[in-house]
Specification:
Length: 430
């Protein structure tokens, strides 16, 4: 018995010296956390965002909204393993795009590592970001875009808009070289998606009856459930971007929750004071606004800054949705630009102000002695917005040419796309 105990102890002591643990740098704790984070972010698109957007769409278009969200996830998943990952994270080509070394994920084996985690896990984690980014664009154009056009647009946009910007920031491209800070996707995800949605909505035009008749959401309950799932998944989104189970991940987790809560309260009280009604839709939208705003800053700022960012996001989000959209006269159906574009910009700027080297030595903002960082953030915001706006506009017209038009017919739009496109209905109202 003593000999058995001795052998057991000896084997346990020898484990850290084995090649799988030490020679290749694999960290099982980091890997487990990243697998969980990937699953959390995956859930955000076909569950969280689908319900959030679906509930806000009109009852006759709820299933169409779900279908377009699902197909965006499925298409992007395939694109990513074929060529998307290579274009975003392949060897840098002129600071603009990744090389073609990883087409079909060639050369990536179970033994390949990205830091302390398997490369295939890293690739899958990044895939979920690409999926939700293009799906966010959908919020601007529900109720009126052809299903076939959405499919073509998704393929083109992920390829020619998302992958270059992801490479610029996270793939050792020119923005990374410049020192731009975007912890989990303020520019890559939210400004990118928001601006693209705005362009697409402007080209498509307003929905029939917009501004003249009430357009009630199909189910605020579904939207609230979707917001809760997004909030839950966002912990993988932000804390997972540490790519490790460490203190920075823990800090990102903490400030993400704090910002979301502060923004929900700010939106609620602002709306309450203006309309005399604290709506559930407003609270849910505030949560998302706070999550968006903290995303680029999550790994760089402390709790105090996250409260300020959240409060500002709640107020800005409400103003963008209730006032700015109507003053400018565009029809952003579910406020992708108002929430993601505007609050993503707020978060990117706030990162340049509040990045605290005590939280993360990789980032120092204006208030901690580095005024240059704010300038870098402004450049990254403007470059992202300009590239996305121009590129999306080109792709919109390419899509239009390939599909014979972007917009559904007037009769189909009036009747609803659930029945005319999918032959289904979400609710049995009879």
């Amino acid at each position: 018995m003593k000999r058995f105990r001795f052998l057991t102890v000896a084997m346990l002591l020898a484990l850290p010296l084995s090649p799988a643990w030490a020679a290749d740098g694999l960290n099982s704790g980091d890997t487990a956390w990243m697998i969980v984070s990937t699953a959390l972010v995956m859930m955000m698109t076909p569950a969280g965002l689908a319900l959030f957007y679906g509930g806000m769409s009109r009852y006759k278009n709820l299933l169409n909204t779900l279908a377009m969200t699902f197909v965006a996830y499925c298409l992007t998943s395939v694109i990513w393993v074929l060529w998307g990952y290579s274009l975003a994270f392949g060897p840098d080509v002129g600071g603009i795009i990744g090389g073609l070394d990883f087409l079909f994920l060639s050369g990536i084996t179970p033994a390949s590592l990205e830091g302390t985690i398997p490369t295939n896990v890293f690739a899958l984690f990044q895939m979920t970001f690409a999926c939700i980014t293009v799906a966010l664009v959908l919020g601007s154009i529900v109720d009126r875009m052809k299903f076939s056009s959405w499919i073509v647009f998704t393929v083109l946009w992920v390829t020619f808009i998302y992958t270059p910007i992801a490479h610029w920031v996270w793939g050792k491209g020119w923005m990374a070289t410049m020192g731009a800070l975007d912890y989990a996707g303020g520019t890559v995800v939210h400004i990118n998606a928001g601006v693209a949605g705005l362009v697409l909505s402007l080209v498509l035009g307003k929905r029939i009856g917009y501004g003249k008749e009430a357009m009630f959401p199909s189910s605020i309950a579904l939207t609230a459930l979707g917001a809760a799932l997004l909030w839950f998944g966002w912990f993988g989104f932000n804390a997972g971007s540490a790519l490790a189970a460490d203190g920075i991940a823990g800090s990102a987790f903490l400030v993400t929750n704090t910002s979301a809560a502060a923004a929900a309260l700010a939106w609620m009280f602002t709306e309450w004071s203006v309309t005399k009604k604290p709506t559930v839709l407003g609270i849910a939208s505030g949560v998302v606004a706070g999550l968006v705003a903290i995303t680029p800053a999550a790994g760089f700022v402390g709790v105090g800054a996250s409260i300020g960012i959240g409060l500002a996001a709640g107020g800005l989000g409400f103003f963008s949705v209730s006032t700015l959209k109507h003053k400018l006269g565009y029809d952003d159906s579910l406020d992708a630009f108002g929430v993601h574009g505007m609050c993503g910009t707020l978060g990117a700027l706030a990162t340049g102000l509040f990045a605290d080297p005590a939280v993360n030595a990789a980032g120092t903002g204006l208030f901690f002695g580095n005024p240059k960082q704010l300038l870098v953030q402004i450049i990254s915001i403007l470059a992202t917005a300009a590239f996305t706006a121009i590129g999306t506009l080109v792709l919109v017209y390419v899509t239009k040419a390939l599909t014979g038009g972007l917009r559904v017919g007037e009769e189909n739009e009036i009747m609803g796309l659930d029945g005319t496109v999918h032959g289904e209905r979400a609710f049995d109202l009879e």
